[in-house]
Design brief:
Two copies of one chain form a homodimer.
Chain A (H helix, E strand, L loop, with lengths): L1 E9 L3 H9 L1 H5 L5 E4 L6 E7 L5 E13 L3 E8 L8 E9 L2 E11 L4 H23 L16
Antiparallel strand pairs in A: 1-7, 2-3, 3-4, 4-5, 5-6, 6-7
């Protein structure tokens, strides 16, 4: 099993970052505008992605496995690209030097692939989108997300 | 051993991207302005990093282990943060959909740590800097690099 991990610092309170990770409205402002479902513990959140022209790219379903306000969020991917199903996504928050530090993990990939490399890069840009949303009110969720290669 | 991998697409020829990865001038435009040494096969390139205020942050030495124009570059880290020494850094270039695809790897970390998560995020932003430099002429090398957390 292999993991994607990233670390980003956000100049805002852990509570504000946690809200952006645990509410449909928050998630829609930095990951994808097309976010729906139940963001409570045990619920399933559905995320759909489109190109700027409106073409469908893909969708994921995440079951919320852990919510510890304002420290930790864990999802289990139950639908999505085959490489994603069964992987877990975690956000661990801590406070350091007047920043909220987000330790992000997308863990338990079966193997290291070029698609995983794409997703690692893409997650980094979405974490910058999360930071921009929390700090300024304006993120870059899909379909207005930063395109990083020929895949998305 | 664990790896950081990223994938980014650049709208330019492989030769132009390869030049940005294999010349002191190219490297100084997207990773750190303070780049010196010998970029030829078997040579050692020295990279130093400073804060915008001029404070020293760190330095790395990379021995050039492989140069296959315009497809592949591999460095071995011989000096730097202890976690980096002995790791390898690779850039594999291919042409797809009118983009040069860069498959980046920073491989053979002894373990998955919070510092590795920081470096993964930081590499993603430097790869965006590489893309910006190659596509527009203006990257964001240190000390003008994008700060991503309380560490750098």
């Amino acid at each position: 099993m292999v993991d994607i991990i990233h670390r980003v610092g956000i100049k805002a309170s852990p509570e504000k970052v946690y809200s952006a990770l645990t509410t449909l409205e928050g998630l829609a402002h930095w990951w994808t505008e097309d976010t729906e479902g139940n963001a409570a513990l045990g619920g399933t959140i559905r995320f759909s992605f489109r190109s700027p022209a409106g073409d469908f790219i893909g969708k994921m379903a995440m079951t919320v496995q852990e919510l510890k306000a304002p420290d930790e969020v864990r999802w289990l991917c139950t639908e999505g690209p085959s490489d994603w199903v069964g992987t877990s996504i975690t956000f661990q928050l801590s406070r350091q030097d007047n920043q909220t530090i987000v330790l992000f993990g997308h863990r338990n990939w079966a193997e290291s692939t070029e698609f995983m490399a794409h997703c690692s890069m893409k997650w980094a840009t979405f974490l910058l989108s999360l930071r921009a949303y929390v700090e300024t009110g304006a993120g870059k969720p899909s379909p207005g997300d930063l395109k990083i290669d020929n895949w998305n």
